[in-house]
Here is the input.
Amino acid sequence: MIIRSIEIIRISIPFSAGTESRQNRGRAKDDDAFNAASPSHRRMESLMLKVTTDTGMVGWGEAFGHGSNPVTFKALSDVVGPMFIGTRLEDREQTLERVRRAVHGFGSTGPMVYALSGMDIALWDLAAQDAGVPLYQLLGGVPRTLELYASLVSYGNDPDEVHRQVSRARDLGFRKIKLHETDVDAIAAARVALPVTAGELMVDVNCPWSVAEASDIAQRLKGLELTWLEEPVWPPDDVAGLALVRRIGVPLSAGENAAGVQGIKALLEHQAVDVLQPSVAKVGGISAMLQVFALAKHHGVKVVPHCFYFGPGLLVVAHLCTLLPHEVAMEVPFIEFERLLYPALAFKPRMDLPSAAGLGFAPDLQVIEDYCVERALID
Ligand SMILES: [Mg+2]
Here is the structure.
């Protein structure tokens, strides 16, 4: 089977985060454009790849993502995508490795690696369809209904709003809830709304602090019994610094910003995290995730994949979660889209896997038409 064309589709869909006056919440800063959890966002983007073979089979992929999309789009359309046209699906491992090596000078993370991640995913989708089985089955996963955890957007460190939103998520049945707040008072308000006996609370701060600052705040958070504190240290690849903060005793998580499998390896070898969070559309796709899972198992570290996606990427993570223990819940954004790209995006605390062969991504084509902001066809 030959890869005939690759369509790159960037869509942007407005969403509601259920806040009463969202426009007044937080400060819209230019650099917030690259933080998917920023309180200034009104729309969520997805960068999708539609790969078509000479037999007419269609495989879908997703590349990271959000504010990086204009650059990842160029990486796909001008560099990575054309290198796959005319290649055989059966040779995908060799082709991926050849392209990885060819573009290694661009660095071990960033848009070029995101583009490759998207291609890897689409080729796995095709391989599973070709085998006539759902993706999880090809990967050796155990099918099950997945628990989802609600990943809340940032409410600008407003304790009242945090309390209200955590209560709302809890009322909807979520028992594992993650915040994107940095102030101890706002985090404490969440713990009031979700006591330890009622559920698990996680906090993602997106790399703001020095090692000293992070250690100080971890000390102050200790009594709140967080399931994890995510990416407390700047820069994100300061794995030795992260390992120092971990000594405070608050469980730490990281991995979404790791520079490929080697970056993940560094986190594990420094014993920097309690929970590893590889991101499928950033780290190198499904092939890289399988390597990460094996490394984490070797080091005895729990994996909870990062998943701030709403295109095919979310379904990929769902399939991958079937390779992990039952207590692993999958991340979904706690937002409501103006229109749904596919039904599973009406998030509930549990989700069933698609049973179709491959990834099972069946988007509403009219939604793609109506919300497309950039599109290119490579053939
Ligand atoms: Mg995060």
Observations:
- The chain has two domains: 3-133+366-378, 137-359.
- The chain is about 35% helix and 20% strand.
